């Protein structure tokens, strides 16, 4: 029988067409609407395969409601917000995607770093209101990027290294900190200097967050860390929202203890700390790290690869809980 597949938001048309060759496909057509829990539960009741995206929370209640659910295929690198234990208990495979978002996320990281430093969003908004302050007005004077110091928190990973490569093009001094040093050869090739977290915070003009989200990294950047930054420094986060204590960040910004922030991720997505929305020295984007057409299309096709293998009775190539196949 052709399985019933439900996709929680629109994906690349080419991936949908592949899925339609495998089964009966339905999806939420509204790219602006993240399904509520009730809507997800209703979808799970009808589907055998749930194709879910980054914002979807697939908890034990939802899995229990999906009596016919046979697979959960997510377009995420790790299945955070999916109750893998509940799925495993029912021998439901949970599949993920490999980390192919590195370059797209590093591009976005540098884009919002530049935007907050050079006050690009403020300038755009002024022009749209019919205000042109003059080509040499002091009204929108910002911070330079060329030759400044960027500090990569958790910078030894893929995206941190990709940002370091971009920083070299701006002649930046690049510091990094993480639980482990990378090989000395890699440090030399990327122009990285390993320092303590406190030294990174004190010396950086831009503190860039790249740490993975783990219990020990929740609020890794909090009030203490923000107080150690320069008053002229900016915080940039494209990693995961809970790594930064958003309330402490708003307090530091309001007190002008740091110069500004650029955020693509938030502690309680899709909610954003209300005070951030009114701060002109903050650039906010709605988790756009992987939002490059070819990257998103490639991600969607990896999910289809997983579904295709499952539909053929094979273990999916990116199965997070392969133990359900033991003894088969």
Please tell me about this protein's structure:
With 328 residues, the chain is of the alpha/beta class. The chain has 2 domains: 4-99 and 292-325, Rossmann fold (3-Layer(aba) Sandwich), CATH 3.40.50; 102-284, 3-Layer(aba) Sandwich (Rossmann fold). It contains 13 helices and 12 strands. The strands form 2 sheets. A 7-stranded parallel sheet has the order 8-7-6-9-10-11-12, sandwiched between helices. Strands 2-1-3-4-5 form a 5-stranded parallel sheet, with helices on both faces. The longest helix is centred in the C-terminal third of the chain and has 19 residues, at 293-311. It is globular, with a radius of gyration of 22 Å. The model has no long low-confidence stretch (mean pLDDT 96).
